Amino acid sequence: MKKIMILALCFFLTGCFEITERIKHNSDESGDYSLIVDFSKSWFRTKSAIWLEEVDGVSIPSEEDIKNKLADFRTQASKIEGVSSVTTKYDFKTYIFTFKFKYSNLKALNAVLNSMNNEDPITHFSKSKENSFQRFASYPIPKNLVNNEDKKEDLNNAHITTIYTFDKEVSQLTNPNSKLSKSKQTVFLKQNIYNVLKNNTLMNNTIYFNP
């Protein structure tokens, strides 16, 4: 399936927006995944772009096109073995879009994330023998945007946040920018889009657990 239109919109419009990835992961490799793309702080700019149908020479999908793509994503993701409860939500007043699903193992989780992009499949998440959970970040972001000075301020004000919760205590994190909750079971990581464009590995993390 082609790159999810909502994600593509983020980087063409480059207004103020937030991307939040949440995972509740269990020891048996099952879990819940959600991705929220929030344009609410720049809803008028987003709405105007959709009305105009083009920004900086880039065609912007209509609301109907977005609805159809989300429906297509639900259909395709639901066919993946080990994936269930696939839902998508959209709000064309606040321009907040949500993707959610349950996965029975990391292979299924990776398959859904790969379906959001038309490039070669990669491993987004893995579990090592050393009792760890690994995130290899890869976001479908046009890297040439970082060279456009007119968009730099917007990209610096846009963020990607990951929130991963586990059913056991975390003992160590390899990403120095990540934070651990008081319960030691939730890991937070936040970066601005501009920095991630320059270095996608800033969102990588290996999370180790207590035995």
Task: Give the number of DSSP strands.
Answer: 13
> Rg from C-alpha positions?
17 Å
Low confidence ranges: none
Distance between the termini: 40 Å
* Category by helix and strand content: alpha+beta
Task: Give the SSE string.
Answer: HEEHEEHEEHEEHEEEEHE
Mean pLDDT: 83
Instruction: Please estimate the helix content.
Output: 25-40%
State the shape. globular
Quickly count the domains.
Answer: 1
CATH architecture classification: Sandwich
How does the major sheet shape up?
7 strands, mixed
Query: Which class in CATH terms?
Result: Mainly Beta
- Total helices: the number is 6
3D architecture notes:
- It is a single chain.
- By secondary structure, the protein is of the alpha+beta class.
- It has a single domain (5-209), classed as Sandwich (Immunoglobulin-like).
- It is 28% helix and 34% strand.
- The protein contains six helices and 13 strands.
- The protein has helices at 5-13, 43-52, 63-78, 106-115, 149-157, 193-198; strands at 18-25, 31-38, 54-55, 58-59, 83-91, 96-103, 125-128, 132-135, 159-166, 170-173, 179-180, 186-192, 205-209.
- The strands form three sheets. It has a seven-stranded mixed sheet.
- Strand 3 (54-55) and strand 4 (58-59) form a beta hairpin.
- The longest helix has 16 residues, at 63-78.
